[in-house]
Amino acid sequence: MTQVRIHGRGGQGVVTAAEMLARAGFLAGHEVQAIPSFGSERTGAPVVAYCRFSDARLRTREPVLEPDVVLVQDPTLLGPARPFAGLAPGGIVIVDTTADAPWVREHAGAQDADARVVTVPATRIAMDLLGRPKPAAAMLGAYAGCADHITLDAVQQVFRARFPGAVGEANAEVATTAFAHVRGDLYTRDDSPEKGDAAAPAGPRIVPQEVSRA
Fold first, then answer.
1. Going edge to edge, which strands form the sheet with 69-72?
2. Per residue in 29-63, pLDDT tens?
3. Pseudo-torsion of CA 82, 142, 111, 86, nearest 10°?
4. Which residues make beta-bridge pairs with 19?
């Protein structure tokens, strides 16, 4: 079983990301489960959602406390959300940021964590190609680029099905661009501050040795 935890803020589509990830996992042939976490959150407040994949029947329903993969859709959550907490040894942490993996480790207080850290400018890509700060498609495209649980084609399919027409096609392009980024074709289309994330400095986009396939 593979367990995924997704951190973000209200309005970023965290629950949608978990749902789309589960659908993509189903297309890849897995038993899947998406668990939203609802409360009194408002736009901008921290939000978390969960997803599981398995080749056997899923019987558990509790929140994911020991994830194999963590997605962080806002780098300002690296400290307060403690995304490395409970992470399985050798797990993957994917962060929406323009900074590099050492910056992520430092700001999460996880310099010595046994993890593969992947960074992708998901919000920047979404703003450039979708026109909205919705990083879900980019985060799932990045996931497909560095793990075997889902494929890029599956991610594209679920977004096209959820948002038929131009919006779905734009999300598919966002996913493709993020996938290419983590595979080494670094995204540098627009470095203007208003389209990047303010929490991370401009600079190296990724640490190559930390984005090889699992």
1. 31-36, 46-54, 2-9, 69-72, 91-96, 115-120
2. 888 888 877 655 567 788 899 999 888 787 777 78
3. 40
4. none
148 contacts 130 by C-beta, under 8 angstroms: no
Number of domains observed in the structure of the chain: 1
d(Cα 57, Cα 172) in Å, to the nearest integer?
A: 30
- The string over 73-95, giving b where at least 16 C-beta atoms fall within 10 Å of a residue's C-beta and e elsewhere, is bbbbbbeebebbeebeeebbbbb
pLDDT at residue 83 is higher than 70: yes
The range of the structural domain enclosing residue 12 comes to 2-210
Nearest to 13 by CA among 120, 119, 97, 139: 139
Angstrom distances, CA of residue 105 to CA of 38, 48, 76: 28, 20, 13
Q: What angle do CA 33, 35, 37 make, to 5 degrees?
A: 175
The single-letter DSSP state of residue 202 is S
The CATH number of the domain where 93 resides is what?
Answer: 3.40.920.10
Cβ-based neighbour number of residue 16 at 10 Å: 18
Predicted structure pTM score: 0.84
Which amino acid appears at position 111 of this protein? Q
86-145: pLDDT as tens digits: 999 999 999 999 999 999 999 999 999 999 999 999 999 999 999 999 999 999 999 999
CA 150, chain centre distance (Å): 12
